[in-house]
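[Discussion] Sanity-checking designs against the backbone

I'm trying to build intuition for which residues belong where. Below is a structure token string of 483 positions. I'd appreciate it if someone posts a full sequence so I can compare it with mine line by line.
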């Protein structure tokens, strides 16, 4: 579960809430949580992506606050410990691409590049005044005496002299790294002060920080932000280095925001599969399907996705903090379609599904309710989504699949049917071992049970644009009667 969203209150209580909820999440069936960036941002209300000091996890008086939006360092470590006590692994969110909120200005010679094509230089050399000096006076050198100046960065988008952000200022003698995404000609630059990943001192300091962070917090894995903007060998080498220095099995998942699965596969190859990736291509399939309604052909919903082409490297998701309304990547899947989308990531054999906090709990800031039956879908995955999978993607508005269960999971096996139109029915083969068994719908509201015939077939149905998940009597009693 991504255990945060963009619009959390700035009350400093989040890490305490995480610690309190850990047992409930474990009981639900959550095995891993992804927590927001824990270090000090450029302001107290920073969600965590406007990075100021990565060594300050809510310990020092900096940027007008000791705590971060989420709480203090001790509370963060306590939350990690609580998750561990509940048997849940924790992924820390790290942002390596940029820094914001510098402590002092420097005068630097720079050229200007077009924001829409960073390979197009639009102006010659000029002096600019930039917030590139990071000395962290509130920390006083504790943990690291490294300070950042303009030599650690390749450029920025703000000149204090002209008070202008109309261009991107690339520092003289620097270049945008070609080993990044080709969008906008070159997408090395994203925001703030862009970190120079070729600077050997930056490389050394990043490795030192990562070791310090893992040792001091106990997190079990990493979520790497904005990897399309970081020279590809940098993250590959960083992960390889940390795994050879005490964390050999450290898992990592990267955010490469592209709906093109070819770009995602190219990146996986470029980093020697040192990390998994979020399946952004599948997210956009869900988004387009939810917008199109009955005009979308469900048969191709997994075509050209990472989970179809590289299932062992795909972390599947429906929405996240960046796709929420009001965010730069806004592409929220409609409330009506979300139960279908979650069934497609939770009840199938491929990919590692990631549930979004706001979809499970609802969002009061955006006045959106929880996704219906999402807790039940998670429990279905935990206990019953096992065994051989067979797809029935033969109708543009009515698709389904079966999981035939296995001997290691009593009561496992299910039939899943979903529609984006008026619904319908489909005959699917469960297997002869289910002959005579009664299956009932635990999500879609179909009242009449299905009896599996002597050959192992059942005719399952879904009413309207919904998802119906059919399970045997034992699972039905567990999920519905004893819920």
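Best answer:
Here's mine. Compare freely.
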């Amino acid at each position: 579960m991504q255990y945060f969203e963009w619009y959390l209150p700035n009350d400093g209580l989040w890490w305490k809430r995480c610690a309190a909820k850990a047992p409930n999440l474990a009981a639900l069936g959550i095995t891993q949580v992804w927590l927001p960036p824990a270090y000090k941002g450029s302001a107290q209300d920073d969600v965590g992506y406007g990075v100021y000091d990565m060594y300050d996890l809510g310990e020092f008086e900096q940027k007008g606050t000791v705590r971060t939006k989420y709480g203090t360092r001790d509370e963060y470590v306590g939350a990690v410990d609580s998750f561990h006590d509940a048997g849940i692994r924790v992924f820390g969110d790290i942002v390596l691409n940029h820094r914001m909120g510098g402590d002092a200005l420097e005068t630097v010679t720079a050229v200007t590049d077009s924001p829409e094509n960073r390979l197009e230089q639009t102006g010659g050399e000029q002096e600019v005044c930039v917030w590139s000096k990071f000395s962290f006076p509130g920390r006083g050198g504790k943990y690291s005496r490294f300070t950042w100046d303009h030599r650690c960065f390749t450029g920025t988008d703000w000149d204090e002299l002209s008070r202008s952000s109309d261009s991107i200022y690339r520092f003289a003698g620097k270049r945008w790294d070609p080993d990044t995404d080709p969008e906008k000609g070159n997408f090395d630059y994203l925001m703030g002060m862009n970190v120079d990943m070729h600077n050997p001192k930056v490389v050394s300091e990043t490795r030192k920080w990562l070791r310090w962070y893992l040792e001091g917090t106990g997190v079990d894995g990493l979520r790497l932000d904005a990897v399309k903007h970081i020279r590809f060998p940098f993250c590959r080498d960083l992960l390889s280095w940390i795994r050879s220095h005490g964390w050999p099995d450290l898992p990592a998942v990267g955010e490469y925001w592209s709906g093109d699965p070819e770009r995602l596969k190219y990146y996986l190859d470029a980093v020697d599969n040192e990390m998994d990736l979020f399946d952004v291509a599948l997210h956009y399939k869900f988004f387009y399907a939810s917008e199109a309604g009955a005009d979308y052909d469900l048969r191709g919903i997994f075509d050209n996705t990472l989970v179809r082409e590289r299932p062992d490297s795909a972390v599947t998701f429906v929405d996240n903090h960046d796709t929420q309304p009001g965010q730069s990547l806004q592409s929220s899947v409609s409330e009506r379609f979300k139960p279908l989308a979650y069934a497609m990531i939770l009840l199938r054999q491929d990919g590692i599904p990631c549930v979004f906090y706001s979809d499970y709990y609802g969002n009061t800031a955006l006045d959106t309710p929880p996704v219906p039956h999402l807790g039940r879908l998670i429990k279905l995955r935990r206990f019953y989504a096992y065994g051989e999978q067979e797809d029935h993607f033969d109708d543009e508005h009515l698709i389904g699949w079966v999981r035939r269960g296995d001997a290691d999971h009593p009561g496992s096996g299910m039939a899943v049917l979903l529609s984006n139109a008026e619904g319908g029915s489909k005959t699917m083969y469960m297997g002869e071992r289910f002959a005579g068994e009664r299956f009932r719908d635990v999500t879609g509201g179909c009242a009449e049970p299905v009896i599996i015939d002597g050959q192992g077939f059942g005719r399952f149905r879904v009413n309207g644009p919904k998802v119906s998940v059919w399970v045997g009597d034992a699972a039905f009693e567990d999920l519905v009667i004893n819920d």
